[in-house]
């Protein structure tokens, strides 16, 4: 996937905002979204994140990075799950106004857009030691304070909470995948009897329940639970299974 900067979208005749009923348009333009679009969004430095993508222009272009960063901020601002965030972007014009995506023929987000971006950030930091999202949130802190000042009804929060929450979600996603892969391997190849809490990792819907359908308030608890489940699982591994990739990834 190649990096492509997302210039501020120009309104066209098919722009969602232009085709709204006047009353709805008025509410959208007076909502929190207008302030976010005017104050925070233009300050997002998407070029900071170009290192996460291929420099091959023939590759498929990335989802607009400034829209992803904006979405991560809004997710924290309204305490949304990943699923709720996606639904809001697709169905609520205020979110599209905030992210300046009203002119897109189709909203540039899928159910994996946010998680893939978090994964890129995680692996980049593991390799370089550089926390790109933390650096960007520091850069945006003044704009964010200015935005919250004119929107007193919104939750008071520090911009750094966005970076912290995103990093924890990345850890949870990767740790969960490692635990689930080893649980499935032990169940299929070794016929190991798993306790009920570990059997849950065999079900495809469990990942969504743990990661994408729950709010961030209990994120620390979910991390702790997944870590403990991983420790339980490692105790069940035979000498033969210790040579497998699934074991190495979780044990490492």
TrEMBL record:
Residues 46-120 form the Transposase InsH N-terminal domain. It holds the Pfam family DUF772. InterPro entries: Transposase_InsH_N (IPR008490). This is Transposase domain. It comes from Tindallia magadiensis. The lineage of its organism: Bacteria, Bacillati, Bacillota, Clostridia, Peptostreptococcales.
């Amino acid at each position: 996937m190649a990096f492509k900067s997302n210039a501020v979208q120009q309104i066209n005749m098919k722009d969602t905002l232009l085709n709204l009923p006047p009353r709805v348009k008025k509410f959208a333009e007076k909502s929190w979204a207008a302030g976010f679009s005017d104050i925070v969004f233009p300050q997002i430095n998407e070029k900071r994140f170009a290192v996460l993508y291929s420099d091959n222009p023939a590759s498929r272009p990335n989802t607009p990075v400034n829209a992803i960063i904006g979405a991560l901020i809004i997710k924290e601002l309204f305490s949304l799950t990943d699923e709720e965030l996606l639904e809001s972007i697709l169905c609520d014009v205020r979110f599209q106004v905030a992210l300046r995506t009203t002119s897109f023929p189709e909203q540039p987000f899928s159910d994996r857009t946010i998680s893939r971006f978090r994964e890129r950030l995680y692996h980049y930091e593991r390799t370089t030691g550089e926390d790109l999202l933390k650096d960007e949130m520091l850069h945006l802190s003044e704009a964010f304070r200015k935005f919250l000042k004119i929107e007193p009804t919104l939750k008071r929060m520090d911009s750094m909470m966005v970076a912290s929450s995103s990093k924890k979600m990345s850890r949870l996603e990767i740790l969960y995948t490692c635990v689930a892969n080893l649980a499935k391997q032990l169940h299929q190849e070794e016929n190991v009897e798993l306790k009920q809490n570990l059997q849950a990792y065999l079900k495809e819907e469990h990942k969504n329940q743990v990661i994408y359908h729950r709010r961030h308030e209990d994120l620390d608890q979910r991390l702790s639970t997944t870590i403990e489940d991983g420790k339980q699982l490692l105790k069940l591994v035979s000498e033969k299974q210790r040579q497998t990739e699934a074991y190495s990834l979780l044990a490492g």
